[in-house]
Known about the structure:
The protein has helices at residues 39-58, 61-73, 78-102, 107-113, 116-127, 129-135, 145-151, 157-190, 195-221, and strands at residues 14-15, 21-26, 29-32. By secondary structure, it is mainly α. It has a three-stranded antiparallel sheet, with no helix packed on it.
Amino acid sequence: MVVGIDRRAxxxxxxxxxxxxxxxxxxxxxxxxxxxxxxxxxxIAEYGLPAIFLGAGLEGETVAIxxxxxxxxxxxxxxxxxxxxxxxxxxxxxxxxxxxRYFRGSRLVRRISARPFFAKALQAFxxxxxxxxxxxxxxxxxxxxxxxxxxxxxxxxxxFVIINAAAAATWALVFVSAGYWFGNAIESVFGTLRSNxxxxxxxxxxxxxxxxxAFWTRRKWLPDGL
Length: 226
């Protein structure tokens, strides 16, 4: 007795042009394997939040906007990004405040206090202490010198911590949201981009915005020739 062999029992997986495996589930049903996460997404997912924390403290606006673009891409969550940006900004300004409060005779503080923005910061603080302490980080160019200048004043450390925390949270929400909506605009104009291309476009847009803020700040706050 000859046992028949069903040749359809074993159907080898075939390959598409991109090399992705296709499993045959039945006549006319091809199930493609899930696309792999790219190296850029993997790096951002693993190291993105610590990098954003450091970048927000060291640089500021550019990193905050770019972090919003990353959040829009879905690689990192929106609220974890906001928290990382806020904490980075808060910690950096606390360090600068401590430098002005406890190390005002150091070479670094003396060099920063010689900048034109330092005198402007003190003048603005004397007019409206609480408002300036809350809002200095929103004016490009004042972010580093202002907490040092405030540290040389009579404002208590506890009061600065409270105002600084509220300001950092507000600032992070504003600039990360701006980056998030900028990411939406990138997708509307260019369509879905690869991660490295999206980051390049986001970085270019962030630099343009920060450059415009820097130009406006110098025209607004500094006299001609400085």
